Amino acid sequence: MEGLRELYQELILDHKRHPRNFRVIADATAAVEGHNPLCGDHLWLYVKVEGDRIADVAFQGEGCAISTASASLLTESLQGQSVAEAERLLQEVIALLTEGKGSAEALGKLGVLAGVRDFPSRVKCAMLAWRTLEAALAGKGTPSVTTE
Amino acid sequence: MGEMHAAERSRLWSPERVRGDFPALSLKINGFPLSYLDNAATTQKPKVVIERLAYFYAHENANIHRGVHRLAELATAAYEGARERVRRFVNARSVEEIVFVRGTTEAINLVAASLGTLWQRGDEVVVSAMEHHANIVPWQLLAERQGIGVRVLPMNEAGELEVEKLPELLTPRTRLVAVTHVSNVLGTMNPIAEIVRMAHAAGALVLVDGAQAVSHLAAVDVQALGADFYCFSGHKMFAPTGIGVLYGRQELLAEMPPYQGGGDMIRTVSFAGSTFADPPYRFEAGTPPIAEAVGLGCAIDYLAQWDRQAAEEYEQELLDYTIARLRAVPGVRVLGSPQRRIGVVSFTLAGVHAHDLGTVLDRYGVAIRVGHHCAMPVMDFYRVPATARVSLAMYNTFEEIDQMVMALEEARRLLG
Ligand SMILES: Cc1ncc(COP(=O)(O)O)c(C=O)c1O
Fold it and tell me: Lower CB density within 10 Å: C or N end of chain B?
């Protein structure tokens, strides 16, 4: 089935089956809870910032293939990056997923998330981890984020 | 499979008799014929109902109860005619017992807000463990506002209420038991008459959420059930959105204060104070959804022309078939196994989140509901974040279930 394979690409399925950085960071500088009340997707994102670098980033939670893979890909791509680079990626992913702006290719692996564009009801699944990251980078302590 | 189905089918009912009446049922979705299995969320509408709305606006449109002109009389007659149809539909004693509201949610909020003002701090309500949020949150709001206690009637793993525990929960302070007729997640049909007997013996009233019952059962008889209040939504029984019904026993409605203030619900208004109209008008402030009420009356007429007993039996066969097919899919877990299940079944598929399942099924033209179904306590009970739910109507076919199961197998291959 055409559309389905674009949404559930191998990379997405791989991250869904084997989520990367799926753990707690005990000494995280930010731990933010993200929640999608519509479908019950729920995650905790842990970020440990040292100076201007993301020394460690991880997540835990329960969700659909899209939200799990999105969170997993997020942690993988931000590991060891500068905070400024993380901010830039965040903005690009948000623009791509919510407005269809920018190019999926330029985002490398993360470009795979653009498959949700053809599934409007699933955009918020892909966005959950990124909205949670947004709150974490904004340094809002331990707030709750929802994609509703 | 077609032949086997023909043999299994109730001889008295064929969905083909009605399918042609529902324009949406011939839609194609992603190149597949639509298999609409989300009837618990809302049913599709027959052409007669759709056309009735257009006819009202084209030929009878006016405000009601406030005009001597011809159209106002036609509109009022159509609206009040719908009330009489609803009365007959649930076998209420009089039309004064039928209050038009927006839906089940508003009906329950109305009772909580209005009846609740007559209660004292420390009074209690009992709510069942399998309620829709619409039959939980209004009582919690009342609890916060007025210090009313909320107790929960538990359920068991089979998805049945532990009705034998109800007497322990009923105290001299229990004012009302709020319970659903049919669960919107599990399909469980609850023993309302028995619950009513227990509650009444303890001096408590019973409010029944009938949202998932009215479109499936051959008949709903509020007098036989003994319910003090019975609530349902038009849109779940082939009628328009925006219209629903609160049935309340006349003696109770007569005692209850207004829910909202405005036009139509008053007798006299002065700045010294106002006096209120009798039920049902006391509870229908402002211009109601007139065309929608007329549409509900039309949907009731539409249902009345069918052998509803045969339709109920057919739906039961189709539900049994659905559950048998689901159970045969490796990794499927069907929630609950109540003795009496009506129209609805929820399940999970190992390794596949319900949301992904919904997306895959949609690609094959199959519409189901995924998520928590506005019943988070039921999700918590079964320790699942979300489920997939198939919900039937009299127009669904065995072939649609086959299509659903085929897509389910596909989801398992792709994502499992
Ligand atoms: C059992 C039950 N109660 C209440 C409701 C709420 O109905 P409405 O949204 O029409 O007010 C629903 C609908 O989802 C339901 O299934």
Answer: N
